[in-house]
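seq:
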Amino acid sequence: MESIWVGERVRVRGIEPEESELLMEFDQDSTFMRNNDRLHPPRSKAGYRHYLESGVGTPNDDEFGAGIESLADRRLVGWFGTNGIDKNSGVFSYGIAIGTDFQRRGYASETIVLLLRYMFGERRFQKCDVEVYAYNTASLNLHQKLGFVEEGRRRRSQYFAGEYHDVVLMGMTIEEYAAAYSLGTVESS
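struct:
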């Protein structure tokens, strides 16, 4: 059996409530949090568990969150979530976070390719937009390597660590994706 959600290094899957402590561990790293979102106030173990049990990230076809599991370790190494769903124009966005100890192993790039294959090839979206903090050169390089094109910059649009930061706007169309990656195939059983 083949799954669109399994690559060579990762499996995309739901996050179980008992994995809430791992999310809590990721949130303890301020650099990690600033690179992926922003710093949040401290939350208890019960708070993280409630977050997962409350249906946040409960999947629907277009807007959903999921965990990223390393196939080698069978361990949760990160997560992503789609957002900015605009069905009228066929555009969506996502955020992705890989734990600091698991970065630069190809998990993010493989997960993004799997996600784009689903959104472009199964859900009929025609474009993906992402926003990357300008100082996050690793994420900028990753998205450029995958084929995203820089489309602009919002100056001084985020504030944290006592400073204002620019956000780089990047995008990829279905045609750009299809030129570099497979949209999948249909086989009879």
